[in-house]
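[Discussion] Sanity-checking designs against the backbone

I'm trying to build intuition for which residues belong where. Below is a structure token string of 367 positions. I'd appreciate it if someone posts a full sequence so I can compare it with mine line by line.
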């Protein structure tokens, strides 16, 4: 590829999709340094400044509706259904304006994770489109409980929007086989600092076990440190839990837009305690970090992520919300603490996807 511009439409449903998109963008940029990336998204600017070393321009835009989150672990389905019914169908004026923007920016192709709006704009603008997903919104809306006719209607409308992508990439672990063109390894952002460097910057002593508490990038959300069964050599690091860095005996709270890069934190950790989400799972798989997780039985993706943990022998154990609220979950930490083990040669789906997209764009651009 020569000097071209690529557009990425990225959902702001948590930071997992943005993490995956950033990993692919970085890998593409390393292959083709002359490419400029335009990111259409509501994900904050700081996230991409921290994640990317390649040139990009962020254009703030709501690229899908998703769900109305009331917390890191729950969604308001009634409000979601109402909002979705107002957001769909796409207004012709919205598509027309977006197509004009794509033409003005000379966008050569669109990648979508998992924005149906970007795929629709690509179709109208006559530029090739790549869907990158481990689930799509129509698949989610069809499976939410209790059923709501507004979700079913949205699924019927959005299904064809996702199918119209010129190329379909599924990232492991994905939810249901959708007859994709490429199935990649798990996708995560690359680690930049070694374990020892990050631990030293965090102030973690050599003999201490670093336990990472994360709720997947939700600002201000954190898991409370267990009130019982804690050991003196445990050190808890809590990203996104404070407005500024706060330190206490055996713990450190980090701000949402802090100086520490999450894949480096995962690399440094001996255990991650988390809401089970795609990017956290992919980082744990890549770094060999054991997982103590809160599942989300009301979210259709969760069962597939749990199945991946089991089928790939990742040291893990489920955690109940009741145990977290009661502070009694400390006893679940010890059995997992010494099980971190990196498996060499795992690879990263980001590089797979970047090479695949690059090859297909080279073919498409031949005169």
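Best answer:
Here's mine. Compare freely.
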């Amino acid at each position: 590829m020569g000097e071209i511009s690529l557009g990425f439409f990225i959902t702001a449903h948590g930071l997992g999709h943005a993490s995956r998109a950033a990993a692919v963008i970085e890998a593409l940029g390393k292959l083709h340094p002359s490419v400029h990336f335009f990111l259409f998204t509501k994900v904050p600017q700081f996230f991409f400044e921290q994640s990317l070393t390649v040139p990009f321009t962020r254009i703030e835009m709501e690229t899908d509706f998703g769900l109305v989150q009331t917390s890191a672990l729950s969604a308001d389905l009634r409000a979601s259904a109402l909002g979705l019914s107002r957001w769909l169908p796409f207004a012709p004026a919205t598509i027309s304006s977006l197509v004009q923007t794509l033409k003005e920016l000379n966008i050569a192709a669109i990648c979508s994770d998992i924005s149906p709006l970007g795929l629709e704009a690509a179709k109208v603008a006559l530029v090739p489109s790549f869907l990158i997903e481990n689930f799509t919104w129509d698949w989610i809306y069809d499976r939410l409980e209790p059923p709501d006719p507004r979700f079913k209607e949205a699924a019927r409308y959005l299904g064809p929007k996702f199918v119209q992508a010129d190329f379909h990439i599924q990232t492991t672990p994905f939810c249901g086989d959708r007859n994709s063109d490429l199935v990649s390894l798990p996708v995560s952002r690359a680690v930049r600092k070694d374990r020892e460097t990050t631990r030293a910057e965090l102030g973690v002593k050599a003999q201490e076990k670093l336990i990472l508490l994360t709720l997947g990038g939700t600002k201000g959300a954190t898991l409370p440190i267990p009130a019982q069964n804690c050991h003196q050599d445990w050190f808890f690091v809590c990203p996104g839990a404070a407005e500024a860095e706060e330190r206490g005996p055996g713990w450190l709270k980090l701000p949402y837009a802090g100086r520490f890069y999450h894949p480096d934190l995962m690399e440094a950790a001996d255990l991650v305690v988390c809401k089970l989400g795609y990017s956290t799972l992919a980082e744990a798989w890549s770094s060999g970090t054991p997982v103590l997780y809160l599942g989300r039985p009301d979210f259709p993706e969760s069962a597939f992520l749990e199945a991946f943990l089991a089928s790939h022998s990742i040291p893990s154990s489920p955690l109940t919300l009741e145990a977290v609220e009661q502070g009694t979950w400390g006893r679940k930490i010890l059995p997992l603490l010494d099980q971190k083990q990196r498996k060499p040669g795992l690879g990263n789906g980001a590089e797979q996807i970047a090479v695949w997209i690059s090859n297909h764009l080279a073919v498409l651009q031949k005169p």
